[in-house]
Amino acid sequence: MNRTCLRTAWASAILLLTAACTTSPSAPPADTGTPAYRPPEEVRNATVIWSAEPGVDLFDSNSTLVRAAAEALEVAILAGPEDSYPGFNDAVTDPTTRDLYFRRSTRDTTAYGTLYKHILDVTPTSTGFTARTCELFKAFAYQRDGIYNTSRTGRLGNSKTITFISNTPLQSEAPSGTTPATTPVATPTPRTSGPAEWQAPEDNLFQSWTIDLAAPDDYRSERCAPWVATLDPDAPAEGETVTTDNPPQTLPAYPGWPKLH
């Protein structure tokens, strides 16, 4: 090869190398992970505000599960269990329970306002734990066909019992009065303010549990009465339905759920 050809070959090689080094980097691969859960439209205009009895830690692992399950039930009733919180549809396995709560007759309804919930107690069992909660619907309405219906809670309030059964191995060997070891549940940081819209955990908090929901007739408890009186001192003796043309005010959720993704 003569010198002219050699110089030409080297020049071509340098041009190719320069082009390779200055080529724009390729775009990063698309994120193929599962998108974060977002509450369905049926509940986005509503929120939940939680409180607890003295001695009950609203933010510990068990109470976090209680809050998630109770909220997930509200979503499942309105939008179906398949659109409720991640893992909830798989955690509720009893056919009778599913038939009671997940009927399609409650669909095509949208929630507005703020639902108040309160944890009365959390009691360990040999296979998990049981929690009793109270509910107050004073400022929570269901909208259908442009009409807002609020099932105003009576003085005794509404109570709900939720039992959590651990799916971890050797759960039957757990000592009496203790909760079997399960996957830890991250507790959210309380929010002092935020958007007045439904918040939800983005990940599956129920993967180590089976959830047993008490029948709907487990709904009145005098233990809820003192709590109801603090929020609605003029509550009627018996529950009643109030119909209006306008939705109730929606307050920011408490404690809400953190954004993780």
TrEMBL record:
The signal peptide, as residue positions, is: 1-26
Q: What is the lineage of its organism?
A: Bacteria, Bacillati, Actinomycetota, Actinomycetes, Mycobacteriales
Species per Swiss-Prot/TrEMBL record: Nocardia uniformis
Q: Where is this region: Disordered?
A: 167-201, 231-261
Q: Where is the composition biased (Low complexity)?
A: 174-192
Give the UniProt keywords, A-Z.
Signal
Protein's name according to its UniProt entry: Lipoprotein
